[in-house]
Amino acid sequence: MDFDKLLKKKSVLSPWLFRINAGSCNGCDVELATTALIPRYDVERLGCHYTGSPRQADVVLITGPLTRRIRDKVLRVWEEIPQPKITVAVGLCPISGGVFREGYAIDGPLDKYIPVDVNVPGCPPRPQAIMEAVVLARQLWLKKLGVEE
Ligand code: SF4
Questions:
Q1: What is the residue with the minimal CA distance to atom 6 of ligand 1?
Q2: Which residues have C-beta atoms less than 6 Å from ligand 1?
Q3: Closest-lying ligand 1 atom to the alpha carbon of residue 25
Q4: Please, which residues bridge with residue 120 across strands?
Q5: Among 12, 62, 105, 148, which residue has the least CB neighbours within 10 Å?
């Protein structure tokens, strides 16, 4: 295999992760931070990297119950992520509203507006569960790309 093909294959196997806070209490975001900062749960061991740009992202992890105030911004940023993308709902809030369910300021659940590929239940979910979700998201993303490992 020539070098360009090898580079393309290797870079395609390493999805960029992007995080959106859709009005969370920050509990889930703290657990997400452990997957970026603490070697024990480091997503880079899985070949994944966090990015600050939605245009570069492949997998998006969304926390929070989707408040009315932030809904349009979340949808706009989500649209900026190129296809094929994988959406992961992190925590009970984006899945069902969690403790904020039926609150006047809540417009979730997330799948009312965005197709969710992977759910990570928990309030907040443990880092191990987030790591499992990233592994699954990566597999789904490679499947969408038609790439075999
Ligand atoms: S699921 Fe729990 S920890 Fe996560 S944002 Fe909602 S209330 Fe906070």
A1: 93
A2: 24-25, 27-28, 63-64, 91-93, 98-99, 123-124
A3: 8
A4: 90
A5: 148
CA distances in angstroms from 51 to 20, 48, 110, listed in the order given: 11, 10, 22
Q: 15 CA distance to ligand 1 centroid (A)?
A: 25
Of 72 and 42, more confident: 72
Element (H, E) at 132: helix 127-145
Give the domains, in start order, of the chain with CATH numbers.
15-145 (3.40.50.12280)
pLDDT tens per residue, range 62-95: 999 999 999 999 999 999 999 999 999 999 999 9
Q: Are 51 and 43 in contact (CB under 8 A)?
A: no
Give CA separation, 104 vs 65, 66, 107, 108, 146, in Å.
12, 12, 8, 11, 42
Neighbours of 15 (CB within 10 A): 25
